[in-house]
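Data availability (excerpt). The following record was deposited with the supplementary files.
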Amino acid sequence: MTRLDGKTAVVTGGASGIGEGAARAFVAEGANVVIADLRADAAGAVADELGSQAIGLGADVTVEDDVAAAIDAAVTAFGRLDCMFNNAGIVGAVGPIAQTAVDDFDATMAILLRGPFLGIKHAARVMSDQGDGGSIISTASTAGLAGGLGPHCYTTAKHGLIGLTKSAASELAAYRIRVNAIAPGNIVTNMTARLGAGDADFEQASAAIAKSSPLGIAGEPSDIAHAAVYLASDESRYLSGETILIDSGYLAGAGRKGAFHHAEPGMVKGIAG
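Predicted structure:
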């Protein structure tokens, strides 16, 4: 028995990066998967590699009919929906806030926040009728937990997504639907590779990410996929409304030793305040 036997998942942005890694991990663990991606040909190519347990289709996560159709395709092809992984994303608008175009803000928010909202909405529609629960997962970011780690619009959307995760979890628990998020740190994907080099230079991106990582290693899509498998499986049946941080310990301060770490051991008896 594998961990996701008999389950069906939809993964948005599933043709590359974290989404592709999750889709491959889900199939390896026994799940059926609908790979939904803006690039229908790329989604189909990954599905063809994975065989009869996967189908690929084109979907724009900002369009409600597309998101609903991807979920309905899973039910039609495989009989049910057990996991919705809202993963599709972009960097979006960058630059100083005083110079950010409103249209760029709206386009970024549409993909990064409206998209997951639509995924949660339509997954809940199907899962609540099934009567035996399900798991909804969204890709957040360290930028959703702290400022200064991403562009303004991206940071706003990811903070909102974490709030939406908690809010949806509070409602959908009544249907045994668990709603959680994963907040990756720097992961080697097409998106991060293009940020550093202007093209998909994975070797350069991996070296740069490893250099900045407290653990001295670069994060890979598989690191996020393992967490997604856990959240999709019955192993996480008592977990909802949470965001799992996977960032090499960066936000916790790993690898950054302050003055007190270097002080002589002992008690400091000064009065605080």
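Summary of structural features: The chain has one domain: 8-190+219-253.
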